Amino acid sequence: MNLEAxxxxxxxxxxxxxxxxxxxxxxxxxxxxxxxxxTGGGKSICYQLPATILPGLTLVVSPLISLMKDQxxxxxxxxxxxxxxxxxxxxxxxxxxxRYIESGAVKLLFxxxxxxxxxxxxxxxxxxxxxxIAIDEAHVLSSWGHDFRDSYLKMIDPLKNLPGSPAWLxxxxxxxxxxxxxxAKILEVPDKNIIKTGFERNNLALKIERKVDKDEYxxxxxxxHIDESGIIYAGRREDVDSIxxxxxxxxxxxxxxxxxxxxxxxxxxxxxxxxxxxxxxxxTNAFGMGINKTNVRYVLxxxxxxxxxxxxxxxxxxxxxxxxxxxxxLYAPIDLRLxxxxxxxxxxxxxxxxxxxxxxxxxxxxxxxEICLMKFILDYFGEKNTDVCGRCTNCLDNRQIVDITxxxxxxxxxxxxxxxxxGKKTVSRVLVGKEDVANDWRNFQELSTFGIFKGKSLxxxxxxxxxxxxNGFLKTSGGKYPILLLSKKGADVxxxxxxxxxxxxxxxxxxxxxxxxSINKPMVADGSFDMDLFEKLxxxxxxxxxxxxxxxxxxxxxxxxxxxxxxxxxxxxxFLAVSGVGKYKLEQYGDSFLEEIKNYQENxxxxx
Length: 608
Known about the structure:
Keywords: ATP-binding, DNA damage, DNA recombination, DNA repair, DNA-binding, Helicase, Hydrolase, Isomerase, Metal-binding, Nucleotide-binding, Zinc. By secondary structure, this protein is an alpha/beta fold. The protein is built from 25 helices and 17 strands. It has four domains: 194 residues, P-loop containing nucleotide triphosphate hydrolases (Rossmann fold, 3-Layer(aba) Sandwich), CATH 3.40.50; 193 residues, P-loop containing nucleotide triphosphate hydrolases (Rossmann fold, 3-Layer(aba) Sandwich), CATH 3.40.50; 103 residues, Orthogonal Bundle (Arc Repressor Mutant, subunit A); 77 residues, DNA polymerase, domain 1, CATH 1.10.150.80. The strands form four sheets. It has a seven-stranded parallel sheet with strand order 3-4-2-5-6-1-7, with helices on both faces. Helix 13 links the parallel strand 12 and strand 13. The longest helix is centred in the last third of the chain and has 25 residues.
Protein backbone atom coordinates (compact mmCIF):
# COMPACT_ATOMS: atom_id res chain seq x y z
CA MET A 1 0.00 0.00 0.00
CA ASN A 2 1.46 3.34 -1.09
CA LEU A 3 0.63 5.63 1.84
CA GLU A 4 2.40 8.61 0.22
CA ALA A 5 0.11 8.34 -2.83
CA UNK A 6 -2.98 8.32 -0.56
CA UNK A 7 -1.59 11.31 1.35
CA UNK A 8 -1.25 13.27 -1.89
CA UNK A 9 -4.55 12.18 -3.43
CA UNK A 10 -6.66 12.80 -0.31
CA UNK A 11 -4.87 15.68 1.42
CA UNK A 12 -2.55 17.18 -1.17
CA UNK A 13 0.75 16.62 0.70
CA UNK A 14 3.77 14.93 -0.89
CA UNK A 15 5.52 13.70 2.26
CA UNK A 16 4.65 12.75 5.82
CA UNK A 17 5.86 14.73 8.78
CA UNK A 18 8.06 12.99 11.35
CA UNK A 19 6.15 10.25 13.20
CA UNK A 20 2.97 10.36 11.12
CA UNK A 21 3.68 7.35 8.90
CA UNK A 22 4.94 5.26 11.82
CA UNK A 23 1.74 5.88 13.79
CA UNK A 24 -0.47 5.22 10.76
CA UNK A 25 1.24 1.89 10.09
CA UNK A 26 0.62 0.76 13.70
CA UNK A 27 -3.04 1.75 13.42
CA UNK A 28 -3.49 -0.09 10.12
CA UNK A 29 -2.00 -3.12 11.88
CA UNK A 30 -4.79 -2.93 14.48
CA UNK A 31 -2.57 -1.89 17.39
CA UNK A 32 -2.88 0.63 20.23
CA UNK A 33 -0.62 3.66 19.77
CA UNK A 34 -0.01 7.11 21.20
CA UNK A 35 1.31 10.19 19.41
CA UNK A 36 2.84 13.11 21.31
CA UNK A 37 3.30 15.96 18.86
CA UNK A 38 3.37 19.75 19.20
CA THR A 39 0.32 21.86 18.34
CA GLY A 40 0.36 22.22 14.57
CA GLY A 41 2.48 19.08 14.24
CA GLY A 42 -0.02 17.18 12.07
CA LYS A 43 -1.76 14.95 14.61
CA SER A 44 -5.10 14.87 12.77
CA ILE A 45 -3.65 13.19 9.66
CA CYS A 46 -2.70 10.24 11.87
CA TYR A 47 -6.36 9.19 12.17
CA GLN A 48 -7.84 10.93 9.13
CA LEU A 49 -5.73 9.05 6.60
CA PRO A 50 -6.34 5.58 8.13
CA ALA A 51 -10.06 6.40 8.13
CA THR A 52 -9.97 6.55 4.32
CA ILE A 53 -8.43 3.04 4.19
CA LEU A 54 -10.08 1.07 7.02
CA PRO A 55 -13.38 -0.65 6.19
CA GLY A 56 -15.49 0.62 9.10
CA LEU A 57 -16.02 3.83 11.02
CA THR A 58 -13.33 5.90 12.74
CA LEU A 59 -14.63 7.19 16.09
CA VAL A 60 -12.90 10.40 17.22
CA VAL A 61 -13.44 11.35 20.87
CA SER A 62 -12.62 14.97 21.65
CA PRO A 63 -13.39 17.28 24.60
CA LEU A 64 -13.38 20.24 22.22
CA ILE A 65 -16.92 20.57 20.90
CA SER A 66 -16.14 23.78 19.03
CA LEU A 67 -13.36 22.06 17.09
CA MET A 68 -15.58 19.26 15.79
CA LYS A 69 -17.46 21.37 13.25
CA ASP A 70 -14.21 22.82 11.86
CA GLN A 71 -12.70 19.37 11.44
CA UNK A 72 -15.84 17.95 9.86
CA UNK A 73 -16.07 20.89 7.46
CA UNK A 74 -12.39 20.50 6.52
CA UNK A 75 -12.77 16.76 5.90
CA UNK A 76 -15.93 17.14 3.84
CA UNK A 77 -14.12 19.87 1.88
CA UNK A 78 -11.54 17.27 0.72
CA UNK A 79 -14.24 14.71 -0.04
CA UNK A 80 -13.99 12.55 3.11
CA UNK A 81 -17.55 12.09 4.49
CA UNK A 82 -17.60 13.03 8.20
CA UNK A 83 -20.03 14.23 10.84
CA UNK A 84 -20.29 14.91 14.56
CA UNK A 85 -22.74 14.21 17.37
CA UNK A 86 -22.71 16.37 20.48
CA UNK A 87 -24.96 18.54 22.62
CA UNK A 88 -25.18 21.24 19.93
CA UNK A 89 -27.03 18.92 17.50
CA UNK A 90 -30.85 19.09 17.68
CA UNK A 91 -32.69 15.78 18.11
CA UNK A 92 -34.21 15.65 14.60
CA UNK A 93 -30.81 16.39 13.03
CA UNK A 94 -29.21 13.82 15.33
CA UNK A 95 -31.61 11.08 14.21
CA UNK A 96 -30.91 11.88 10.57
CA UNK A 97 -27.15 11.76 11.12
CA UNK A 98 -27.38 8.45 13.00
CA ARG A 99 -29.28 6.83 10.13
CA TYR A 100 -26.67 8.20 7.71
CA ILE A 101 -23.87 6.72 9.84
CA GLU A 102 -25.67 3.35 10.01
CA SER A 103 -25.75 3.23 6.20
CA GLY A 104 -21.95 3.15 6.13
CA ALA A 105 -21.67 6.42 4.20
CA VAL A 106 -19.68 8.18 6.97
CA LYS A 107 -15.96 7.51 7.50
CA LEU A 108 -15.32 9.67 10.60
CA LEU A 109 -17.64 10.38 13.53
CA PHE A 110 -16.62 13.01 16.12
CA UNK A 111 -18.20 12.75 19.59
CA UNK A 112 -17.74 14.30 23.02
CA UNK A 113 -16.65 11.97 25.87
CA UNK A 114 -20.00 12.46 27.63
CA UNK A 115 -21.75 10.69 24.74
CA UNK A 116 -19.76 7.49 25.36
CA UNK A 117 -21.12 7.08 28.90
CA UNK A 118 -24.71 7.69 27.78
CA UNK A 119 -26.33 4.20 27.87
CA UNK A 120 -28.66 4.77 24.92
CA UNK A 121 -25.93 6.22 22.72
CA UNK A 122 -23.44 3.51 23.72
CA UNK A 123 -25.95 0.80 22.83
CA UNK A 124 -26.35 2.34 19.37
CA UNK A 125 -22.58 2.75 19.00
CA UNK A 126 -22.00 -0.93 19.86
CA UNK A 127 -23.96 -1.94 16.76
CA UNK A 128 -21.60 -0.14 14.38
CA UNK A 129 -18.47 -1.48 12.69
CA UNK A 130 -15.74 0.60 14.33
CA UNK A 131 -12.23 0.13 13.00
CA UNK A 132 -10.40 2.88 14.91
CA ILE A 133 -10.91 4.82 18.15
CA ALA A 134 -8.96 8.09 18.23
CA ILE A 135 -8.79 10.06 21.50
CA ASP A 136 -7.75 13.65 20.89
CA GLU A 137 -6.38 15.92 23.66
CA ALA A 138 -5.65 12.73 25.61
CA HIS A 139 -3.81 14.57 28.40
CA VAL A 140 -7.19 15.36 30.00
CA LEU A 141 -7.29 11.72 31.13
CA SER A 142 -4.21 12.06 33.34
CA SER A 143 -4.43 13.36 36.90
CA TRP A 144 -0.95 14.78 36.30
CA GLY A 145 -2.12 16.74 33.27
CA HIS A 146 -2.91 20.45 33.20
CA ASP A 147 -6.55 20.01 32.17
CA PHE A 148 -7.43 16.82 34.08
CA ARG A 149 -11.13 15.91 33.88
CA ASP A 150 -12.06 13.00 36.11
CA SER A 151 -15.34 12.39 34.27
CA TYR A 152 -13.47 11.44 31.11
CA LEU A 153 -11.92 8.40 32.75
CA LYS A 154 -15.41 6.87 32.88
CA MET A 155 -15.47 6.46 29.09
CA ILE A 156 -12.36 4.26 28.91
CA ASP A 157 -13.90 0.96 30.02
CA PRO A 158 -16.94 1.31 27.70
CA LEU A 159 -14.61 2.06 24.79
CA LYS A 160 -12.50 -0.99 25.61
CA ASN A 161 -15.64 -3.14 25.56
CA LEU A 162 -16.76 -2.11 22.08
CA PRO A 163 -17.01 -5.16 19.79
CA GLY A 164 -14.58 -5.85 16.96
CA SER A 165 -11.28 -5.00 18.71
CA PRO A 166 -10.71 -1.68 16.91
CA ALA A 167 -7.29 -0.05 16.82
CA TRP A 168 -6.63 2.79 19.28
CA LEU A 169 -4.83 6.10 18.87
CA UNK A 170 -4.28 8.65 21.65
CA UNK A 171 -3.02 12.10 20.71
CA UNK A 172 -1.79 15.06 22.73
CA UNK A 173 0.42 18.09 22.24
CA UNK A 174 1.43 18.70 25.85
CA UNK A 175 2.57 15.67 27.82
CA UNK A 176 5.42 15.61 30.30
CA UNK A 177 7.05 12.22 30.96
CA UNK A 178 4.81 11.80 34.01
CA UNK A 179 1.65 12.42 31.96
CA UNK A 180 2.93 10.16 29.17
CA UNK A 181 3.48 7.28 31.61
CA UNK A 182 0.03 7.78 33.15
CA UNK A 183 -1.71 7.77 29.75
CA ALA A 184 0.16 4.65 28.63
CA LYS A 185 -1.06 2.85 31.74
CA ILE A 186 -4.67 4.04 31.44
CA LEU A 187 -4.92 3.21 27.72
CA GLU A 188 -2.69 0.11 27.81
CA VAL A 189 -0.35 1.40 25.12
CA PRO A 190 3.00 -0.45 24.98
CA ASP A 191 6.15 1.68 25.17
CA LYS A 192 7.20 0.70 21.65
CA ASN A 193 3.96 2.20 20.30
CA ILE A 194 4.50 5.64 21.84
CA ILE A 195 5.72 8.02 19.14
CA LYS A 196 7.14 11.28 20.46
CA THR A 197 8.18 13.57 17.61
CA GLY A 198 9.59 16.43 19.65
CA PHE A 199 8.02 19.65 20.78
CA GLU A 200 10.19 22.09 18.86
CA ARG A 201 8.45 24.46 16.45
CA ASN A 202 11.09 25.69 14.00
CA ASN A 203 8.82 28.37 12.54
CA LEU A 204 7.86 29.89 15.90
CA ALA A 205 9.85 32.73 17.49
CA LEU A 206 9.32 32.92 21.27
CA LYS A 207 9.74 36.38 22.77
CA ILE A 208 9.40 38.01 26.18
CA GLU A 209 8.89 41.73 26.71
CA ARG A 210 9.51 42.86 30.29
CA LYS A 211 8.52 46.12 31.98
CA VAL A 212 6.74 47.66 28.99
CA ASP A 213 3.55 49.68 28.83
CA LYS A 214 1.35 46.75 27.83
CA ASP A 215 -1.50 48.67 26.21
CA GLU A 216 0.87 50.77 24.13
CA TYR A 217 2.86 47.69 23.11
CA UNK A 218 -0.27 45.79 22.03
CA UNK A 219 -1.57 48.74 19.99
CA UNK A 220 1.76 49.31 18.25
CA UNK A 221 2.22 45.62 17.54
CA UNK A 222 -1.27 45.16 16.08
CA UNK A 223 -0.82 48.24 13.89
CA UNK A 224 2.54 46.90 12.70
CA HIS A 225 0.85 43.61 11.67
CA ILE A 226 -2.52 45.04 10.65
CA ASP A 227 -3.11 42.60 7.76
CA GLU A 228 -2.14 39.50 9.71
CA SER A 229 -4.23 37.28 11.98
CA GLY A 230 -3.40 37.28 15.67
CA ILE A 231 -4.71 36.29 19.10
CA ILE A 232 -4.24 38.38 22.25
CA TYR A 233 -4.71 36.36 25.44
CA ALA A 234 -5.65 38.08 28.71
CA GLY A 235 -6.15 36.42 32.07
CA ARG A 236 -9.44 38.04 33.11
CA ARG A 237 -12.69 38.97 31.37
CA GLU A 238 -12.36 42.61 32.42
CA ASP A 239 -8.90 42.73 30.81
CA VAL A 240 -10.34 41.31 27.59
CA ASP A 241 -13.06 43.95 27.56
CA SER A 242 -10.58 46.73 28.34
CA ILE A 243 -8.10 45.74 25.61
CA UNK A 244 -10.95 45.21 23.13
CA UNK A 245 -12.34 48.71 23.80
CA UNK A 246 -8.90 50.30 23.69
CA UNK A 247 -8.04 48.76 20.30
CA UNK A 248 -11.49 49.55 18.91
CA UNK A 249 -11.17 53.21 19.99
CA UNK A 250 -7.88 53.33 18.10
CA UNK A 251 -9.40 52.17 14.83
CA UNK A 252 -8.56 48.47 15.00
CA UNK A 253 -11.13 46.01 13.67
CA UNK A 254 -11.06 43.64 16.63
CA UNK A 255 -13.13 40.86 18.20
CA UNK A 256 -13.35 39.49 21.74
CA UNK A 257 -14.19 36.17 23.36
CA UNK A 258 -14.82 35.17 26.97
CA UNK A 259 -17.34 33.19 29.03
CA UNK A 260 -19.20 36.34 30.12
CA UNK A 261 -20.55 36.97 26.62
CA UNK A 262 -23.73 35.39 25.31
CA UNK A 263 -23.49 32.18 23.29
CA UNK A 264 -24.57 34.09 20.20
CA UNK A 265 -21.94 36.80 20.61
CA UNK A 266 -19.16 34.27 21.24
CA UNK A 267 -20.21 32.34 18.14
CA UNK A 268 -20.31 35.51 16.03
CA UNK A 269 -16.93 36.74 17.25
CA UNK A 270 -15.32 33.34 16.63
CA UNK A 271 -16.84 33.05 13.16
CA UNK A 272 -15.69 36.57 12.24
CA UNK A 273 -12.15 35.63 13.21
CA UNK A 274 -12.24 32.30 11.36
CA UNK A 275 -13.66 33.93 8.24
CA UNK A 276 -11.03 36.71 8.28
CA UNK A 277 -13.65 39.40 8.89
CA UNK A 278 -11.52 40.47 11.85
CA UNK A 279 -7.79 39.84 11.94
CA UNK A 280 -7.27 40.12 15.68
CA UNK A 281 -9.24 38.76 18.63
CA UNK A 282 -8.77 39.41 22.36
CA UNK A 283 -9.71 36.43 24.50
CA THR A 284 -9.35 34.48 27.71
CA ASN A 285 -7.88 31.00 27.42
CA ALA A 286 -11.44 29.73 26.84
CA PHE A 287 -10.75 30.68 23.23
CA GLY A 288 -8.58 28.72 20.85
CA MET A 289 -8.99 25.14 22.05
CA GLY A 290 -11.49 24.65 19.26
CA ILE A 291 -9.70 26.75 16.67
CA ASN A 292 -7.89 25.13 13.78
CA LYS A 293 -7.18 28.41 11.96
CA THR A 294 -3.89 27.87 10.15
CA ASN A 295 -2.87 31.45 9.30
CA VAL A 296 -2.53 32.94 12.81
CA ARG A 297 0.76 34.83 12.57
CA TYR A 298 1.13 35.93 16.17
CA VAL A 299 -0.04 35.24 19.72
CA LEU A 300 0.38 37.92 22.38
CA UNK A 301 0.03 37.08 26.07
CA UNK A 302 -1.06 40.18 27.97
CA UNK A 303 -0.47 38.29 31.24
CA UNK A 304 1.52 35.21 32.10
CA UNK A 305 -0.36 31.85 31.87
CA UNK A 306 -0.42 29.54 34.88
CA UNK A 307 1.44 26.57 33.37
CA UNK A 308 4.03 25.79 30.72
CA UNK A 309 1.56 23.33 29.18
CA UNK A 310 -1.16 25.96 28.75
CA UNK A 311 1.34 28.51 27.49
CA UNK A 312 2.84 26.24 24.84
CA UNK A 313 -0.56 25.01 23.74
CA UNK A 314 -1.74 28.61 23.33
CA UNK A 315 1.35 29.86 21.47
CA UNK A 316 1.08 26.76 19.29
CA UNK A 317 -1.99 28.29 17.66
CA UNK A 318 0.35 30.58 15.75
CA UNK A 319 1.93 29.35 12.54
CA UNK A 320 0.06 26.08 12.15
CA UNK A 321 0.62 26.39 8.39
CA UNK A 322 4.39 26.14 8.91
CA UNK A 323 5.08 29.76 7.94
CA UNK A 324 6.96 32.14 10.31
CA UNK A 325 5.05 33.20 13.43
CA UNK A 326 5.71 34.97 16.73
CA UNK A 327 4.60 34.38 20.32
CA UNK A 328 5.21 37.30 22.68
CA UNK A 329 4.74 37.25 26.45
CA LEU A 330 4.28 40.65 28.10
CA TYR A 331 5.70 39.79 31.50
CA ALA A 332 5.24 41.61 34.79
CA PRO A 333 5.99 39.75 38.06
CA ILE A 334 2.83 41.17 39.64
CA ASP A 335 0.75 39.01 37.26
CA LEU A 336 1.87 35.94 39.22
CA ARG A 337 -0.15 37.14 42.21
CA LEU A 338 -3.44 36.73 40.35
CA UNK A 339 -2.64 33.07 39.71
CA UNK A 340 -1.59 32.62 43.34
CA UNK A 341 -4.93 34.06 44.44
CA UNK A 342 -6.95 31.74 42.20
CA UNK A 343 -4.95 28.71 43.36
CA UNK A 344 -5.53 29.61 47.03
CA UNK A 345 -9.26 30.08 46.36
CA UNK A 346 -9.65 26.83 44.39
CA UNK A 347 -11.60 23.89 45.81
CA UNK A 348 -8.81 21.35 45.36
CA UNK A 349 -6.97 19.68 48.22
CA UNK A 350 -3.52 20.76 49.40
CA UNK A 351 -1.74 18.33 47.06
CA UNK A 352 -3.64 19.70 44.06
CA UNK A 353 -2.90 23.30 45.05
CA UNK A 354 0.76 22.45 45.51
CA UNK A 355 0.96 20.92 42.03
CA UNK A 356 -0.54 24.11 40.55
CA UNK A 357 1.93 26.27 42.47
CA UNK A 358 4.82 24.15 41.24
CA UNK A 359 3.60 24.58 37.66
CA UNK A 360 3.25 28.33 38.21
CA UNK A 361 6.81 28.45 39.52
CA UNK A 362 8.01 26.70 36.34
CA UNK A 363 6.22 29.40 34.33
CA UNK A 364 7.91 32.04 36.49
CA UNK A 365 11.28 30.42 35.80
CA UNK A 366 10.56 30.56 32.06
CA UNK A 367 9.75 34.27 32.25
CA UNK A 368 12.97 35.01 34.14
CA UNK A 369 15.40 32.66 32.38
CA GLU A 370 18.26 33.88 30.21
CA ILE A 371 18.77 30.64 28.30
CA CYS A 372 17.17 29.92 24.92
CA LEU A 373 13.40 30.00 25.42
CA MET A 374 12.71 27.09 23.08
CA LYS A 375 15.40 25.05 24.84
CA PHE A 376 13.74 25.81 28.19
CA ILE A 377 10.41 24.47 26.84
CA LEU A 378 12.06 21.35 25.43
CA ASP A 379 13.88 20.68 28.71
CA TYR A 380 10.57 21.00 30.57
CA PHE A 381 8.98 18.33 28.38
CA GLY A 382 11.95 16.04 28.85
CA GLU A 383 13.80 16.68 25.60
CA LYS A 384 17.48 17.13 26.28
CA ASN A 385 18.38 19.24 23.29
CA THR A 386 21.64 21.17 23.52
CA ASP A 387 20.93 23.31 20.44
CA VAL A 388 19.60 26.86 20.73
CA CYS A 389 16.87 28.14 18.43
CA GLY A 390 18.67 31.34 17.37
CA ARG A 391 15.40 33.30 17.01
CA CYS A 392 13.99 33.86 20.53
CA THR A 393 14.45 36.95 22.68
CA ASN A 394 17.28 35.44 24.67
CA CYS A 395 19.16 34.08 21.66
CA LEU A 396 19.00 37.51 20.01
CA ASP A 397 19.98 39.36 23.20
CA ASN A 398 23.51 40.71 22.69
CA ARG A 399 23.96 42.26 26.13
CA GLN A 400 27.28 41.58 27.80
CA ILE A 401 27.46 38.65 30.22
CA VAL A 402 28.82 39.69 33.62
CA ASP A 403 29.93 37.68 36.66
CA ILE A 404 27.55 38.28 39.59
CA THR A 405 28.90 35.57 41.89
CA UNK A 406 29.66 38.04 44.68
CA UNK A 407 26.14 39.52 44.71
CA UNK A 408 24.61 36.05 44.41
CA UNK A 409 26.60 34.87 47.44
CA UNK A 410 25.33 37.86 49.44
CA UNK A 411 21.72 36.97 48.66
CA UNK A 412 22.18 33.28 49.34
CA UNK A 413 24.06 33.99 52.56
CA UNK A 414 21.27 36.30 53.70
CA UNK A 415 18.66 33.58 53.11
CA UNK A 416 20.71 31.16 55.21
CA UNK A 417 21.34 33.71 57.99
CA UNK A 418 17.58 34.32 58.14
CA UNK A 419 17.21 30.57 58.82
CA UNK A 420 15.44 30.00 55.49
CA UNK A 421 12.16 31.09 57.10
CA UNK A 422 11.19 34.15 55.02
CA GLY A 423 9.99 35.07 51.58
CA LYS A 424 11.31 37.34 48.84
CA LYS A 425 9.76 40.53 50.21
CA THR A 426 11.35 40.28 53.66
CA VAL A 427 14.71 39.07 52.36
CA SER A 428 14.83 42.00 49.93
CA ARG A 429 14.12 44.51 52.71
CA VAL A 430 16.86 43.04 54.90
CA LEU A 431 19.40 43.15 52.04
CA VAL A 432 18.54 46.77 51.23
CA GLY A 433 18.48 47.65 54.97
CA LYS A 434 14.96 49.02 55.37
CA GLU A 435 14.21 50.50 58.80
CA ASP A 436 10.86 48.73 59.18
CA VAL A 437 12.67 45.36 59.51
CA ALA A 438 15.68 46.70 61.42
CA ASN A 439 14.38 47.13 64.95
CA ASP A 440 11.62 44.59 65.49
CA TRP A 441 11.73 41.44 67.61
CA ARG A 442 13.61 39.50 64.90
CA ASN A 443 16.79 41.60 65.26
CA PHE A 444 17.59 41.53 61.54
CA GLN A 445 19.83 44.58 61.95
CA GLU A 446 22.35 42.36 63.71
CA LEU A 447 22.83 40.19 60.61
CA SER A 448 26.05 40.75 58.68
CA THR A 449 23.95 40.86 55.49
CA PHE A 450 21.63 43.61 56.75
CA GLY A 451 21.95 46.59 54.40
CA ILE A 452 24.61 44.88 52.29
CA PHE A 453 22.70 46.14 49.21
CA LYS A 454 22.29 49.66 50.60
CA GLY A 455 22.91 51.17 47.18
CA LYS A 456 20.33 49.00 45.37
CA SER A 457 16.59 49.48 45.09
CA LEU A 458 14.03 46.96 46.30
CA UNK A 459 12.94 46.23 42.73
CA UNK A 460 16.52 45.65 41.59
CA UNK A 461 17.12 43.32 44.55
CA UNK A 462 13.85 41.52 43.88
CA UNK A 463 14.82 40.93 40.24
CA UNK A 464 18.11 39.41 41.38
CA UNK A 465 16.26 37.07 43.75
CA UNK A 466 13.89 36.15 40.89
CA UNK A 467 16.89 35.40 38.68
CA UNK A 468 18.47 33.17 41.33
CA UNK A 469 15.15 31.36 41.87
CA UNK A 470 14.46 30.95 38.15
CA ASN A 471 17.91 29.49 37.57
CA GLY A 472 17.83 27.00 40.42
CA PHE A 473 20.09 28.69 42.99
CA LEU A 474 17.12 29.17 45.32
CA LYS A 475 14.00 27.08 45.89
CA THR A 476 10.66 28.13 47.30
CA SER A 477 8.50 26.24 49.76
CA GLY A 478 4.85 25.57 49.25
CA GLY A 479 2.01 27.05 51.25
CA LYS A 480 0.17 30.34 51.07
CA TYR A 481 3.31 32.32 51.91
CA PRO A 482 6.25 30.65 50.11
CA ILE A 483 9.65 31.04 51.72
CA LEU A 484 13.08 31.05 50.09
CA LEU A 485 15.27 27.98 50.54
CA LEU A 486 18.85 27.29 49.53
CA SER A 487 19.21 24.65 46.80
CA LYS A 488 22.17 22.32 46.32
CA LYS A 489 23.21 24.48 43.38
CA GLY A 490 23.03 27.56 45.61
CA ALA A 491 25.09 25.84 48.30
CA ASP A 492 27.79 25.16 45.70
CA VAL A 493 27.87 28.89 44.92
CA UNK A 494 28.36 29.71 48.61
CA UNK A 495 31.18 27.17 48.78
CA UNK A 496 32.86 28.74 45.76
CA UNK A 497 32.46 25.63 43.62
CA UNK A 498 30.53 27.36 40.81
CA UNK A 499 30.17 30.94 39.60
CA UNK A 500 27.01 32.81 38.63
CA UNK A 501 26.81 34.83 35.41
CA UNK A 502 24.03 37.04 34.15
CA UNK A 503 23.41 39.34 31.23
CA UNK A 504 24.09 42.94 32.14
CA UNK A 505 20.99 44.73 33.37
CA UNK A 506 19.78 47.68 31.37
CA UNK A 507 19.15 50.94 33.16
CA UNK A 508 15.52 50.72 34.19
CA UNK A 509 13.37 53.46 35.59
CA UNK A 510 10.67 52.62 38.08
CA UNK A 511 7.99 53.49 35.54
CA UNK A 512 7.03 51.31 32.62
CA UNK A 513 9.30 51.88 29.66
CA UNK A 514 7.95 52.86 26.30
CA UNK A 515 7.44 49.93 23.98
CA UNK A 516 9.34 49.76 20.74
CA UNK A 517 7.79 47.63 18.05
CA SER A 518 9.55 47.30 14.75
CA ILE A 519 7.21 47.84 11.81
CA ASN A 520 7.80 44.50 10.17
CA LYS A 521 6.72 43.43 6.75
CA PRO A 522 4.14 40.62 6.82
CA MET A 523 5.77 37.54 8.31
CA VAL A 524 4.80 35.38 5.33
CA ALA A 525 6.63 37.69 2.95
CA ASP A 526 10.16 36.39 2.52
CA GLY A 527 10.84 37.89 -0.89
CA SER A 528 10.67 34.56 -2.70
CA PHE A 529 7.17 35.01 -4.14
CA ASP A 530 4.89 37.70 -5.56
CA MET A 531 2.92 39.30 -2.71
CA ASP A 532 0.51 40.99 -5.14
CA LEU A 533 -0.45 37.62 -6.62
CA PHE A 534 -0.71 36.22 -3.10
CA GLU A 535 -3.29 38.90 -2.22
CA LYS A 536 -5.22 38.18 -5.45
CA LEU A 537 -5.41 34.49 -4.56
CA UNK A 538 -6.43 35.32 -0.97
CA UNK A 539 -9.33 37.39 -2.34
CA UNK A 540 -10.43 34.55 -4.63
CA UNK A 541 -10.22 32.11 -1.71
CA UNK A 542 -12.39 34.44 0.37
CA UNK A 543 -15.04 34.54 -2.36
CA UNK A 544 -15.32 30.75 -2.34
CA UNK A 545 -15.33 30.67 1.47
CA UNK A 546 -18.23 33.10 1.72
CA UNK A 547 -20.26 31.26 -0.91
CA UNK A 548 -19.78 27.95 0.90
CA UNK A 549 -20.00 29.38 4.46
CA UNK A 550 -16.69 27.85 5.52
CA UNK A 551 -13.47 29.38 6.80
CA UNK A 552 -10.99 30.42 4.06
CA UNK A 553 -8.17 28.22 5.39
CA UNK A 554 -10.36 25.16 4.82
CA UNK A 555 -10.14 25.81 1.08
CA UNK A 556 -6.39 26.45 0.90
CA UNK A 557 -3.92 27.45 3.60
CA UNK A 558 -1.70 30.51 3.21
CA UNK A 559 1.19 28.09 2.73
CA UNK A 560 -0.60 26.52 -0.26
CA UNK A 561 -1.31 29.95 -1.78
CA UNK A 562 2.33 30.88 -1.27
CA UNK A 563 3.41 27.72 -3.08
CA UNK A 564 1.13 28.64 -5.99
CA UNK A 565 2.87 32.03 -6.17
CA UNK A 566 6.25 30.29 -6.28
CA UNK A 567 5.34 27.59 -8.82
CA UNK A 568 2.97 29.69 -11.01
CA UNK A 569 1.11 26.60 -12.32
CA UNK A 570 -0.35 26.83 -15.83
CA UNK A 571 -2.25 23.53 -16.09
CA UNK A 572 -3.94 20.87 -13.95
CA UNK A 573 -0.84 18.70 -13.65
CA UNK A 574 1.25 21.60 -12.36
CA PHE A 575 -1.56 22.74 -10.05
CA LEU A 576 -1.73 19.25 -8.53
CA ALA A 577 1.97 19.50 -7.71
CA VAL A 578 1.26 22.43 -5.34
CA SER A 579 1.60 21.50 -1.66
CA GLY A 580 -1.88 21.11 -0.16
CA VAL A 581 -3.66 20.38 -3.44
CA GLY A 582 -5.16 16.91 -3.85
CA LYS A 583 -7.40 15.52 -6.56
CA TYR A 584 -10.61 16.69 -4.88
CA LYS A 585 -9.33 20.27 -4.46
CA LEU A 586 -8.12 20.24 -8.07
CA GLU A 587 -11.61 19.32 -9.26
CA GLN A 588 -13.26 21.92 -7.03
CA TYR A 589 -11.00 24.92 -7.49
CA GLY A 590 -8.33 24.21 -10.07
CA ASP A 591 -9.88 26.01 -13.04
CA SER A 592 -10.70 29.17 -11.07
CA PHE A 593 -7.28 29.54 -9.46
CA LEU A 594 -5.44 28.72 -12.69
CA GLU A 595 -7.51 31.38 -14.46
CA GLU A 596 -6.70 33.95 -11.74
CA ILE A 597 -2.97 33.18 -12.01
CA LYS A 598 -3.07 33.36 -15.80
CA ASN A 599 -4.89 36.72 -15.81
CA TYR A 600 -2.47 38.15 -13.26
CA GLN A 601 0.57 37.08 -15.27
CA GLU A 602 -0.87 38.53 -18.50
CA ASN A 603 -1.70 41.87 -16.83
CA UNK A 604 1.75 41.98 -15.29
CA UNK A 605 3.39 41.50 -18.71
CA UNK A 606 1.14 44.16 -20.27
CA UNK A 607 2.07 46.72 -17.63
CA UNK A 608 5.79 45.96 -17.94
